[in-house]
Design brief:
Blueprint lengths: L6 H14 L11 H38 L6 H10 L6 H10 L1 H12 L1
Helix pairs in contact: 1-2, 2-4, 4-5
Length: 115
């Protein structure tokens, strides 16, 4: 059987692992074994936080909408219920953007519901 030398492959793999941990502190950026573990943990956290980011943004939109409709005589839940009954199909993200950036337009949307 032919002898296989792993020098080039091993160095390439190690270089790749350490490149992924650039900016990490202490042994995580210099030692291959610790760096591999750091990459694994970072990937797990990244996966989990991609999911939780969606949840956090929806909470933010809800909060902004609620803050905007309170002075106009609605609560968040009554506002969303009124939207559904009036067949206004704006999503929470766009409602939040309206409330934050264009309050007079948002007030007009709310006035549509009071008629």
């Amino acid at each position: 059987m032919v002898r296989v030398k792993r020098g080039v492959t091993k160095v390439k793999r190690r270089k790749n692992v350490l490149a992924q941990t650039k900016g990490y502190r202490f042994d995580r950026s210099t030692k291959e074994r610790v760096a591999k573990e750091a990459i694994h943990h970072a990937g797990a956290h990244a996966f989990r936080h991609r999911r939780s980011k969606k949840r956090e943004y929806r909470n933010l939109w809800t909060l902004r909408i609620n803050a905007a409709v309170r002075p106009l005589g609605f609560s968040y839940s009554k506002f969303i219920n009124a939207l559904k009954k009036a067949n206004i199909t704006l999503d929470r993200k766009s409602l939040s953007a309206l409330a934050k950036d264009y309050p007079e337009t948002f007030a007009r949307v709310v006035q549509q519901l009071t008629r």
